[in-house]
From TrEMBL:
Listed name of the protein: Uncharacterized protein
Length: 41
């Protein structure tokens, strides 16, 4: 509705950091970010 996607994304990203407990968690987070930000081409 009038939300700014950039602000929402930053909120989700910072919330995600609260769940990092190990190197495995970091790899999952990075992989999720890569998969969800792939551009066309």
């Amino acid at each position: 509705m009038g939300e700014n996607p950039e602000i929402i994304s930053k909120g989700y990203l910072s919330l995600s950091f609260a769940y990092i407990r190990s190197e495995k968690d970091i790899l999952k987070l990075v992989n999720t970010i890569i998969v969800n930000t792939k551009g066309d081409g």
